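We treat protein structure as text, and this decision shapes the records that our systems exchange. Below, we set out a record of this kind in full and without editing:

***
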Amino acid sequence: MNVLIVGGGTAGWMTAAALATLLPPGTARFTLVESAQIGTVGVGEATVPHIRFFNQRLGFDEAHFMAYTRATFKLGIEFHDWARPGDRYLHPFGAYGESVDSVPFHQAWLRARREGRARDLPRYSLPVRAAGENRFAAPDPDPEAIGSTYSYAYQFDATRYADYLGRHAQQRGVTRVEGRIVDVDLHPESGFVQAVILEDGRRLEADLFVDCSGFRALLIGKALGTGYRNWQHWLPCDRAWAAPCASTGPLAPYTRATADQAGWRWRIPLQHRVGNGHVYASGFMDDDDALARFLSGLEATPDDEPRQLRFVTGRRERQWRRNVVSIGLSSGFLEPLESTSIHLIQLAIGYLVDWFPERRIDPACAAEFNRVMDLEYERIRDFLVLHYHATEREDSAFWRHMKHLDIPDTLRERMALFRERGVVSQYRHGMFLDASWLAVYFGQRVVPRQVDPAAERLDPDRLDDFMRDLDRRIGETVAMMPDHAATLEGLLAGRQGAAA
């Protein structure tokens, strides 16, 4: 089978590297076509922990990868001013506490807190306390140790990551073709894509096409006319300004998201710079005001001219249609509030590997791919809407709108269940687990009306001792962790050549 990947960037080269590495040898011949004339978005520099396992499956050495991509470690995302101006909390990549006699920790904590037996919830999260002190160490491999109760991700230069993946892919037989696509040839009867035509007249044929052409969606959108499900009524932010600058503070092991008048601002610390952006809703703020607010909030003069991005939040009606699979921005876009863009690329690649066609395109495989990817998009959508809707802010038209938003039924039901009994619904599909939902619920003042009866039956002295011991063990473990910058320096020692 011949596979043509249309577009490079993070999505294209992640796809090429993964397919060439993970599929059995001889499964297919892979070609990637991209044009140096067409830029990539390239501002998504923050990730979630799943990226580590993607890199490991491809055989990447962590130190080498981090040196090349100027990466830092990431323990979570710090949110400022979301429920109320002045509020702050961290969404950690790790658990809150441990269950108490089979009672979920947050239920036991709710009772203990009510009775004055517990401190604030962040005290019982190791990554929250480590991030607060700018400390980082790899998790303890002993599953019984308190130091094993968290994970981590990376903050890296997305352009260098794409280049890193490109080198890996081409070493494994992927052919790169330079050229700009000007036409797409469809079969007159089946409607399948037969070939793409380049500006110089070359014709590139394939059996399976992967559309990684970004917002242009050359194949899935323009050629096949696949519809787009617009979610801007729930997530109205539709533009962003982005620019890097020098860092003026400690090397933080977390991304920051600060709520603003009509959206929010990001800060992503890398080894050599800070990535910054201002995401906003054009219906509530014009471009000039948004740019002015962005520039006034930077810690240093921008290194480059600010770039503006325009987008429509939503997803394709079908992400695999006929012989075209869309991956990345061509398949949909969910704003970068929880660093999910690269994760959605990774998910799509994983499902494509699972259902990769052997000789022909199987409609059943395409249907299942679409079903699970739709679920993944919708559940991330709900999690993002939660951040905006769970607010007490009334200080701008944007926040008043979001506070009183008619949210998706799926999120409304989930929030109602938590508000009543503190229950976090479980899904088979969906990247965010209990700890993530708990971080946003409690961080944005969504508190259950009652405690689980099982927590009410816990022995009070046992509960008191448990909370004190947990606080102590976390504190002792964090105290032994080195500074984030020192950990990076030690890891990268002897790897300077990899950064060339």
